[in-house]
Please model this.
Amino acid sequence: MRNKHRLIHHYIDLITVLTQKDLKVRYKNSFLGYLWSIAHPLAFALVFFIAFKVVVKIRVENYTLFLISGLFPWQWFANSVNGAPMIFINNASIIKKVNFPKNVLVLTHVLQDMIHFLLAIPVIALFLIIYGKAPSVSWCYGIPILLFIQFFITYGLSIIVASTNLFFRDLERLTMLFTTLLFYFTPIIYPEHMIPNHYKPLIHLNPMASLMVSWRNLFMVGVLDIFEICLALVYAIIIFFLGHVIYKSLSWRFAEIL
Amino acid sequence: MNRRVVVLKNVSKSYPLYHQMMGIKNFLFNLPKGIRSMKNSRIEVLKDISFEIEKGESLGIIGKNGAGKSTILGLIAGVLKPTKGTVFVEGRVSPLLELGAGFHPDLTGRENILLNGILMGYSKAEILKKMDNIIAFTEIREFIDQPVRVYSSGMLARLGFSVVANLDPEILLIDEVLAVGDMDFQKKCIDKMEEFKRNGVTIVFVSHSMDNVKRICDRVIWIEDHSIKMNNDVNTVISNYTRMR
Ligand SMILES: Nc1ncnc2c1ncn2[C@@H]1O[C@H](COP(=O)(O)OP(=O)(O)OP(=O)(O)O)[C@@H](O)[C@H]1O
Ligand SMILES: [Mg+2]
Model:
């Protein structure tokens, strides 16, 4: 009992110290890191606004708001997954030295992007207010639910990418390609009802689609669709377990292959 | 007889051999060959090794470059898994490996102390309490707040040794790190290790310096041709080892 308590306590220490380290190493300065995590999606929102609203004249109300409420959560996902190939490689020297639960490295990597996303939510609220709307009370339970689901999807995918990249070192570009393609197949810059009827059923094959639609609906109108949430949750569970199994079967070889 | 804290039983260890560091493209384009080469090409480094270490004992491991000494430490530290056989370790292992191993170049000395201590299983509170002692032991003063990438090799060795030495180790694994320290520091380390010996810390010491091995170790294992060539008291093994060369 006491031992277990100690173990949990140590796990928490491990996570806080590694997160601090990550913040420092990845962003040099955590405040700049935060600014960057806001500027990046806003810049993309601007680009998509010009391309699709100004040029293509897409018929979506409050298109800026629409873009922002999808781009911020996506940025969390994409940043985590795109950075995943290097997680174990960047920590090679500690992995070769001490035996510790290496999945904590992935956990802190994803947590850190999650924290940045959380800190960016006030920016979304600000845009809502600018557009004459207000954050909804449903955020209080909606955000934790979606946060939880997205965390498991992102962690699962990141640990798959991080582990397999040690065995096939060219996964980094493929990952980038994969997340970019997935972005365009996910209703973030276009609403799902614009997808031709013919292809509509296919959208649910994309594990990120339900989740991103849910985020946007939560931020823009304050509602959650139970079907979308359940679907996203099923994907989260599958991907998380897949990641766990792959990590478990490969992790004992990390130190010899790094 | 004392309690045994490290037991290796019929341990073999082989590493995968990489003809070419395969990318996923190569792998997919030569699928059958790729799978076969993954399975077959392993190089055996240790073959059927067995030995035990008692609590409080100081064991030296000697042998040529590439003999497998660091591999044995990796097995004891639990970062490597044996291909065959079993490794049993009881107690907290504090590894002190080659230069800079375990340090993050972009973090300062102080931050690396915390990171390393945590990874070795100490709590944040324990490390912060000992922080001043650790820093004092390194004698690198204001450099402690510089990123370790600007450290000299000797400074890295000082930092590494100070962390493990000041955190009450139980099983200390030392892999050829003292060589780069200056004379003062080498002496300081050897003194500290003698103090550990008196206090019942188990030490596994890998070194090419027979003098240091003689100072520290009670017993020595000599590794050659993938197996233990000799496992005996320090003087017997070292005199045979030096005569062989
Ligand atoms: N991760 C690895 N992958 C493949 N081969 C490895 C790996 N690590 C070590 N080896 C091989 O295993 C053998 C033993 O290596 P090891 O590092 O244990 O030797 P050592 O006795 O510590 O040598 P030294 O005195 O030079 O430190 C060497 O031939 C080395 O090439
Ligand atoms: Mg070695």
About this structure: The longest strand of chain B covers residues 4-16. Strands of chain B lie at 4-16, 42-54, 58-63, 84-89, 93-96, 171-175, 202-206, 219-224, 227-233. The radius of gyration of chain B is 20 Å. The domain at 56-244 of chain B is CATH 3.40.50.300 (Rossmann fold).
